[in-house]
Amino acid sequence: xxxxxxxxxxxxxxxxxxxxxxxxxxxxxxxxxxxxxxxxxxxxxxxxxxxxxxxxxxxxxxxxxxxxxxxxxxxxxxxxxxxxxxxxxxxxxxxxxxxxxxxxxxxxxxxxxxxxxxxxxxxxxxxxxxxxxxxxxxxxxxxxxxxxxxxxxxxxxxxxxxxxxxxxxxxxxxxxxxxxxxxxxxxxxxxxxxxxxxxxxxxxxxxxxxxxxxxxxxxxxxxxxxxxxxxxxxxxxxxxxxxxxxxxxxxxxx
Length: 254
Hints:
Number of domains: 2
CATH topology of the largest domain: Rossmann fold
Number of strands: 8
Strand order of the largest sheet: 1-2-4-3-5-6-7-8
């Protein structure tokens, strides 16, 4: 009889423990969903295919390709910032696709690149004999760097938007080309860490500073918590980024 009571007590404990775990997990998912930055109307519009660019949702993300023309190198892989919907980077991807590049934006589990470091594998597998660069914004840039550190033989270079190479993504011993782009009004980037981790970059890394650019305008999702007000428009910041990338791409072909 005592054994039966003990078993019944343990069953109740297990049931309540399971209920608590489910509630905590569900609450965590709900919090992450509510904390995720959503794409602006401009970004949502840029996700639509038109006469210039074909946008395709694929298993690991989104592909942007020039309509009716062969893509020019390099192909571009992009890792979104932490808790930012990947569609928020569609204006950048669309602009680069209009210039002839094939662009991939990765979809990260829970919108956190820490859980999707190797997403680039599936994109590279589509055209394994073509040239690729990888880049990312904020947390996405850090994990793009970690991917590049482990797969430098598959890439021509890496670019960082308000991001840096931490010790796990050090590229100082690789032959990769690197581009660092920041905004002077960025209130989110850890500038002290950014300065310290320059030692993890290749010696010939190019550094571009956008006057008046902030953190959130490297995407298109509105103001980010802790950021400073931008001193330039979102379109102006986008054009500065695209120009810096265009000039960097030229150096890759030399």
